[in-house]
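Hi U.,

Before I forget, here's the chain from the pilot set. I'm dumping it here mostly so it's searchable later in email.
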Amino acid sequence: MSADPTATAIREADAFLAAFAAEKTLPDTISNSRRCAVAEEIAATGTWTPAFEELEHGARIAWRNNARCIGRLFWPSLRVRDRRHLTEPQDIHSELLEHLALATNGGKIQPLITVFAPASRSKPYSRIWNHQLLGYAGYEQPDGTILGDPKNLAFTRKAQSLGWRGEGTAFDLLPLIIQKSGGPPRLFPPPSAAALEVPLTHPALPWFSDLGLKWYAVPILSDMRLRIGGIDFCAAPFNGWYMGTEIGSRDLGDTARYNMLPVVAAGMGLDTSKPSTLWRDRALVELNTAVLHSFEHAGVRIVDHHRASSEFMEFTAREQKAGRAVSADWSWIVPPMSGSATPVFHTLWKDLSLLPDYLQQPKAWIEF
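Structure:
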């Protein structure tokens, strides 16, 4: 038997409001009154409307709870932009450009979330198709290889089906696609003017710049849902800043992504005849060195995986001091390079599935 959605919503809202009152040290009379009013609102309408302070706290706690994020030490600094009144793709597009500019902040990346209208059966709301507001296209070539980012192959095809045509380079910024419930998807140009991109160079390998690699400054996740007190905000793009290995080890290093390790190894003159020469490891270190060096040279905020791991352990200590359990997915928290050389490797983390949280949702073009 499926759970009663109204009962579930009341239970989640009450748990959130109780935790909100405890952390904000609200008097019991105020807390109890608010919880009763929200329960009545959900019973009557099926949902409720958080006050801005509740929304702000919920978005920050969702970051604090997210088991996959290593950068949670800074959760109290998340800036929340309340745009719940907006549902039209054109208006949302304008706000996304503003979010990009504010988050980039001239390279001094600031944690930011913009929250649009929540999911509803009776009122309009919108979804953002992009996984991140910035991303590079992936084009399948006649020989089956992918030019650009293979991760975005399906999205690139969707954009092309809506009429978009890129320049056909390895680093074409993707357009933005926004869809309002009950309506067709709207295609908007790539946010090139607002996108800060960092060309990659190496402090000791002059030829590295000839590879023509670059990456965008700020990762703004835009296809996840923010769940607070039983409410799903399906369009709530948010960002922190990059940990270097996200770009150097995964985006550029993974075989299913840009697969640059063989290219870097060749430039270094490494023996790639067998894995035991550790050519992949040596190339990986220099690729990550280039990322950190380039971002720092460009004045763009980034953190290396050793510092990020130490900061996560500080976050853990603070949470334990506050009497809160830490939810963490070991496979995501441990960096994808030199894992055992970081303190997070040596702790057995558990994903506690706490709420509020930022959660995965099906691709918009599949279910929306």
